[in-house]
Specification:
- The chain is α/β, with parallel strands linked by helices and 458 residues long.
- It has helices at residues 14-19, 58-63, 87-96, 98-101, 130-138, 175-190, 200-208, 219-226, 231-242, 262-276, 291-297, 312-321, 329-332, 369-380, 417-431, and strands at 2-7, 27-31, 34-43, 48-56, 116-126, 144-151, 161-173, 281-285, 304-309, 335-339, 354-358, 384-390, 434-440, 451-457.
- The protein folds into 2 domains: 2-195, c-terminal autoproteolytic domain of nucleoporin nup98; 259-457, Rossmann fold (3-Layer(aba) Sandwich).
- It contains 15 helices and 14 strands.
- The chain has a 7-stranded antiparallel beta sheet with strand order 2-3-4-1-5-7-6. The protein has a 7-stranded mixed beta sheet with strand order 10-9-8-11-12-14-13, with helices on both faces.
- It is globular and about 75 Å long.
- Residues 66-74, 244-249 and 251-259 have low confidence and may be disordered.
- InterPro entries: 3'-RNA_MeTfrase_Hen1_bac, Hen1, Hen1_N, Hen1_N_sf, Methyltransf_12, SAM-dependent_MTases_sf.
- It catalyses: small RNA 3'-end nucleotide + S-adenosyl-L-methionine = small RNA 3'-end 2'-O-methylnucleotide + S-adenosyl-L-homocysteine + H(+).
- It comes from Chitinophaga niastensis.
């Protein structure tokens, strides 16, 4: 297995100082099941590449194998571990690049926190879930991802693609951040670990994920996979990760106790619109903890209700709050909860009268909205689409919100009324819908309402 780190920042040979590995030498670090070799295929002032070659001993793997694997009886003898980047690679990174990962550079300490352009090559990376999972994990962190997939067998193309990829990642970050993210995310892609996973792994995840994991849109997926899908450990880790999440300014209790909270008003407005249009099947695309789903379940006219969310943790909360396991069978049959992303085509979203996105779009990076548009308006293509988002102009009304700040820490953008309408008009024209708009909440004559709603019809 090979990991390469390349930079063109001048002088590129500073990479040697950061990694504490001299470009003119081949250096070897011993591991329990093999060894790690670090060398430099290229080392000039214009371009420098550090290569980490992990050489695992198959006999050593068998000798140190532990019980409880999920594979077949001969898995310890027949497996892909010597040939792929797995948790062994994470261990190799931690052993060979420990000083760099911990943010220490004796000779040039100013380099530690400098954002440097890097190109990272991984050969070969196993990804359970394929390319969509790979992109969900790396792209939100700002990486430009290039993927080369492999056939299961070139002589039998009908067998399809394998789960193995050659991956190139490009980003401008401090090296310590790159190494920490690789340390966590390589075994997350593989969804497996070669050693016993206990409570100490939570501490490692908190340490290596500090500064980026808590804001990652699929942090629940990353946490569960990193902790080998051990539910008690994952819940414990997520409680730590999510405990400091900022409460949205608008979701705080209103000053007037007789007024509805804005979020409740949004949900009731959306439900009433669906009732007015005699909708019988609804896909809540970004259902969160299921508040809208509960309102829809109260109305018998909604015969089929789907809740989709990218967060597995939120779906668990929704399932608990909706008390699905206690519902009569006839009611349980009306509701389905699924995990998924609105940036990838999903046939499960097809066939519904209406699609609803309540405060969803602002949680995506704007360049990814094009993918969402195709998923919702071209592939799912319901008769009715209801989308709500915050009105950025109204932010001046929140006294504790500093100028230029967003209402929630996970918002990637917040649009003015004009920006929202410009986007909505383009989408409607492109996909054959008509669209109308309305404010939500107490409306100000100058800045409008705190939130805004677009109703698409075809």
């Amino acid at each position: 297995m090979l990991l390469t780190i390349t930079t063109t920042r001048y002088p590129a040979t500073d990479l040697g100082y950061l990694l504490h590995k001299h470009p003119a030498k081949v250096q070897t670090v011993a591991l329990t099941a093999g060894s790690v070799h670090v060398f430099y295929p290229e080392a000039t002032d214009d371009k420098c590449t550090a290569a980490l070659l992990l050489d695992l001993d198959p006999v050593g793997l068998v000798r140190r194998s532990t019980p409880g694997s999920s594979g077949f009886a001969l898995e310890q003898y027949v497996n892909d571990r010597p040939y792929v980047a797995s948790s062994f690679m994470s261990n190799a990174i931690a052993q060979a690049y420990a000083t760099a990962m911990n943010g220490r550079c004796k000779d040039k300490p100013h380099l530690v926190d400098e954002a440097i352009p890097f190109e990272i090559g991984l050969s070969v990376l196993p990804v359970k879930g394929g390319e969509p999972i790979l992109r969900q994990i790396f792209e939100p962190l700002g990486y430009k991802v290039t993927v080369q997939s492999h056939q299961l067998d070139d002589q039998f193309p009908e067998w399809g693609k394998s789960r193995y990829f050659n991956v190139t990642l490009r980003h401008t970050l401090p090296l310590k951040t790159v190494l920490c993210q690789l340390y966590v995310l390589i075994p997350v892609c593989d969804n497996d670990k070669h050693y016993f996973v206990g409570g100490h792994e939570i501490e490692k995840l908190m340490e290596k994920g500090n500064g980026w994991l808590d804001t990652h849109p699929v942090k629940e997926l990353i946490t569960r996979r990193y902790l080998k899908n051990i539910a008690p450990l994952a819940r414990q880790a997520l409680e730590v990760i999510m405990k400091d999440e900022v409460v949205s300014q608008e979701e705080k209790a209103p000053k007037d106790k007789d007024k509805l909270r804005l979020h409740d008003l949004r949900l009731l407005t959306v439900r009433d619109i669906l009732l007015q249009h005699n909708v019988s099947s609804v896909a809540d695309m970004g259902c969160g903890e299921g508040k809208l789903l509960r309102l829809l379940m109260e109305k018998a006219s909604f015969k089929r209700i789907l809740g989709l969310d990218v967060s597995y943790h939120s779906l668990e909360i929704a399932q608990d709050k909706l008390k699905i396991d206690r519902l009569p069978e006839i009611q349980k049959a009306r509701l389905q909860l699924i995990q998924g992303s609105l940036t990838y085509k999903d046939k499960r979203l097809s066939g519904f009268d209406a699609g609803v996105l309540v405060e969803v779009i602002e949680h995506l990076d704007e360049p990814r909205l094009a993918a969402l548009e195709k998923v919702v308006f071209e592939y799912a293509r319901p008769q009715l689409v209801v989308i709500t988002t915050v009105n950025a102009e109204y932010n001046v009304k929140f006294e504790k919100l500093s100028s230029g700040a967003f209402r929630h820490s996970d918002h990637r953008f917040e649009w003015t009324r004009t920006e929202f309408e410009t986007w909505g008009n383009r989408v409607a024209q492109q996909f054959g819908y008509s669209v109308s708009y309305q404010p939500l909440g107490e409306t100000d004559e100058v800045v409008g309402g705190p939130s805004q709603l677009a109703l698409f019809k075809r």
